[in-house]
Amino acid sequence: MMEEADDGGRWDFLDRVGPDTSSCIFKLLDHPADLARAAAVSRSWRRFVIDNEFCKRLCRQLCPEVANFTSVAVVTRRPEAAAAAPGEPSRDADLRARETDHAVYCRLGGALVSAKTSTEDCILNCVAASSTDNFPQETVDNTLEPEERVYGHSSYWSSAGQDDPDVPESLIYRLSSDLCLVDEIRIRPFRAYFQPDNPIYSSRAVRIRMGHSMLPPGTESFVSDENENLKAMADENYTWTYTSPEFPENVLQTFKLPRPALCIGGIVKFELLGRIQKQATDDRYYICICHAQVMGRPLSSDLMVNISNPADYSILKYLPGASNVTGEDILNNDGSDSTEWHSLVSRYWQMRHLAGTMRNHMLGPEQRNLLLGPVQFVDEDDYMNIEEYMNIHMDGFMDM
């Protein structure tokens, strides 16, 4: 703060203690709101916070996956608002770039802190399983059902049988947002009540990977009753930005991550390592999962990653005002919105809305695949509002 000097003037705290000591003090601020308040004290304090990238440093301290972002960008709703001043000196351009970094990371820090306050199941759909014993009756899609019995039948995914107990299996899921802060994994192994001694077909251990798909936009597919989607298991289809430690599994169901981890890209892979239980009828090892959940919180809709080019997932994008956008706003776009802003917000809104729709109406795999096709929003002349749009696309599914 400013202090009274001997000659009646005022001292700036930063000048009084020097930049090195000031930096050590500012690094002790461990909440984004504290840095925001510090930057509001004076112009010199704001410049000190911006020039030393304290907000970026704090974000990486809160969540190390943030280091995967190589750059940030502000995407405005109106194209003309994003235009840079013609003939802008390089010094001013550098200042604007630092201020942009500060604004984006300040917003990200606030989102990371608020995302820790509550959790929900973030799984939107099943992408693939490394094997299935009896497809589609034992499809991985069964792991989305919260109940152990559906329509009078046991609901679970089963791997193919193996003679070697060390053969692993993997399950891949798509989350409800491209940016989710995840803090807990829940897995319920299947207990075969119809077999002697009611064996539990768990894996020996579980490991989690999170990242994004490298497939071209619009080509991602999901498990359905007709398609096991095994091609989606190939490692070259994904970039993993987080890998958890191995968690021993038997009857345990909840695995708390060592710290909340940011999933950049909305893909989670469950690695089921090793087998415990043999099936008596064929003397082979199996892994069976009844239910799976990824507990966390999608970040705010004004923070996104690039969806048009998988190679650009390292660019964090801030869309001011996107949090207040509704589905009707998207449908009623008159063409004045910038293409990138509209595309990013549309995708976020669609995925979140579909997540709620599937939970409310228990849609099956075919209906999920239909609704999760390429993002294509209709014009307002075709449908009056988003509820009517969704009802038309789900015609015939609501009575399941």
From TrEMBL:
Gene3D superfamilies xref list: 1.20.1280.50
Domain F-box as annotated: residue spans: 24-61
Superkingdom of the organism of origin: Eukaryota
SUPFAM superfamilies cross-referenced by the UniProt entry: F-box domain (SSF81383)
Protein name, as recorded: F-box domain-containing protein
Species whose genome carries this gene: Paspalum notatum var. saurae
